[in-house]
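Folds vary. Our protein:
___
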Amino acid sequence: MLLTLVIFYLLITIAIGLWAAKRVKNTADFAIAGRHLPLVMIVTTTFATGFGSETVLGIPAKFVEGGLKGVVEDPFGAGTCLILVGLFFAAKLYKMTLLTISDYYRERYGRGIEVVCSLIIILSYLGWVSAQVTALGWCSTCCPAARSASRWAWCWAPPRSWPTRCSAACGRWR
């Protein structure tokens, strides 16, 4: 059943991608939808960009362990930053017709700084993607036979406690 749903989701996603690809004429169309998205879509895509397995499953575990002090930086800090950028910088940056933050640095400081900024972003995204894959790997090897949602919840703890949590939740450790 689950495999059927995953395959169905994959096929729908591919179909939407093929349909949308016909509408892409240039880089601006691809990166920012040609600046034709309604505000609701912009807000939801920005919100969704920051979500991953660590947000959906890691933050609740941090909250359970440390209370509100454990989750001050994410989601509260990240959300506050998004609001502040939206209030003070978004309109100015939108008028500049930029595609990326690196484009801003190119216009302000030159090509060299743009390249440095792009490299820093690439490295940070490699770390972010690595965290997602690591979380998926830990949880798929940790609790494949877990029968209850409460056992799964124990796997979503900070990395330092994974071996202890997984062995307590599943009764074993690989």
